[in-house]
């Protein structure tokens, strides 16, 4: 069972185990080059490739990418259908390579609005890569943090109606879409905006947040490294004081022993 940061204090490591990214700024990247917005989305796929590779090399265990939010249906229909086609094309082209590289691929989100062909490509890709033990790459598609909490609560109550009178974190956790992953250690949003835009809400409770003006198509291994370095400078207290952290206790003991 995945540990909850509010129920117990997680172990922290220099390399985040789980990075969650809002890949924003494709449209502006294209507009700056007088290209149609879709040109930015195409280049965004290349940035995904680079970041997946870099995460694998850095020993990140889980990478979760926000590709399409439950609110993105509000965009012009042409852009929405281009994004769907791009997702399908990327799946067709990349899944073999992901599998060769030992990557486990997952999609979270409400797939009921997607075309059956896209849904079957997703299911095939998940099935093919399910036993891989490298990086777990999750794509959030037609995903919304509120949708996730509600679908989890509804499924839980269907399975266990006796919980209607009250339930706890541990009852709900297995039903959340990301139940197989530890909570994200590091959240990155590119494109300059400083908001969560209904991405994973429940699991971001104690995640370190990193915002950069870099537009998603320009985000690469070096940009990822900057985010990781920023993360390494954070003090993750989870409600405690600085003096209570294991490093501080060790330093104090060392001072007492060595005088
Ligand atoms: C993010 O880039 C990609 C998706 C939401 C699919 P945007 O398309 O939001 O790019 P900007 O924010 O308009 O620059
Ligand atoms: C968030 O980006 C969703 C994805 C990156 C998929 P948006 O560009 O849609 O977010 P808002 O609307 O500016 O908050
Ligand atoms: Mg945007």
Percent of sequence in beta strands: 5-15%
Q: pLDDT average, as an integer? A: 96
- Share of residues in helices: 40-55%
Measured distance between first and last alpha carbons: 43 Å
What sequence of helices (H) and strands (E) makes up the elements?
Answer: EHHEHEHEHHEEHH
Largest sheet geometry: 6 strands, parallel
List the domain count as a whole number: 1
How many runs of DSSP E, i.e. beta strands? 6
Rounded Rg: 20 Å
User: What is the subunit organization of this protein?
Assistant: single chain
Topology-level CATH name: Undecaprenyl pyrophosphate synthetase
Task: Jot down its keywords.
single chain, 259 residues, alpha/beta, Undecaprenyl pyrophosphate synthetase, six-stranded parallel β-sheet, 8 helices, 6 strands, binds 3-methylbut-3-enyl trihydrogen diphosphate, binds magnesium ion
Walk me through the structure.
The chain is α/β, with parallel strands linked by helices and 259 residues long. The chain has one domain (18-258): Undecaprenyl pyrophosphate synthetase. The protein has helices spanning 26-32, 37-58, 77-100, 116-129, 145-159, 169-172, 221-232, 246-258, and strands at residues 18-22, 62-69, 104-108, 136-143, 186-189, 208-211. Helix 4 (116-129) links the parallel strand 3 (104-108) and strand 4. Helix 1 (26-32) crosses helix 2 (37-58). It is globular. The structure holds 3-methylbut-3-enyl trihydrogen diphosphate (2 copies) and magnesium ion. Magnesium ion binds at residues 24, 191.
Present the secondary structure layout:
Layout: E1 18-22, H1 26-32, H2 37-58, E2 62-69, H3 77-100, E3 104-108, H4 116-129, E4 136-143, H5 145-159, H6 169-172, E5 186-189, E6 208-211, H7 221-232, H8 246-258
Parallel strand pairs: 1-2, 1-5, 2-4, 3-4, 5-6
Helix pairs in contact: 1-2, 2-3, 3-4
Bound molecules: 3-methylbut-3-enyl trihydrogen diphosphate (2 copies) and magnesium ion (MG).
The site of one 3-methylbut-3-enyl trihydrogen diphosphate has 11 residues, from strand 2.
């Amino acid at each position: 069972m995945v540990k909850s940061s509010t129920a117990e204090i997680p172990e922290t490591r220099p390399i985040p185990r789980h990075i969650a990214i809002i890949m924003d700024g494709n449209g502006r990247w294209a507009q700056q080059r007088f290209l149609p917005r879709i040109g930015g989305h195409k280049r965004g796929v290349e940035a995904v490739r680079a970041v997946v590779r870099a995460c694998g090399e850095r020993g990140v265990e889980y990478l979760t990418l926000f590709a399409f939010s439950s609110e993105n249906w509000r965009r012009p229909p042409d852009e929405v259908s281009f994004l769907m086609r791009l997702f399908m094309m990327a799946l067709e082209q990349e899944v073999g390579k992901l599998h060769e590289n030992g990557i486990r691929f997952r999609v979270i989100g409400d797939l009921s609005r997607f075309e059956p062909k896209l849904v079957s490509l997703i299911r095939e890709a998940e099935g093919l890569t399910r036993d891989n033990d490298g990086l777990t790459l999750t794509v959030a598609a037609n995903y919304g943090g509120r949708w996730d909490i509600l679908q989890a609560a509804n499924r839980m109550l269907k399975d266990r109606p006796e919980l209607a009178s009250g339930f706890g974190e541990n009852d709900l956790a297995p039903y959340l879409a990301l139940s197989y992953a530890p909570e994200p250690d590091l959240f990155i949003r590119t494109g300059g905006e400083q908001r969560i835009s209904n991405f994973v809400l429940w699991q971001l409770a104690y995640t370190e947040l990193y915002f950069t003006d870099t537009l998603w198509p320009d985000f690469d291994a070096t940009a990822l490294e900057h985010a990781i370095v920023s993360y390494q400078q954070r003090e993750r207290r989870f409600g405690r004081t600085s003096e209570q952290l294991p490093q501080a206790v060790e330093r104090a003991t060392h001072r007492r022993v060595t005088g």
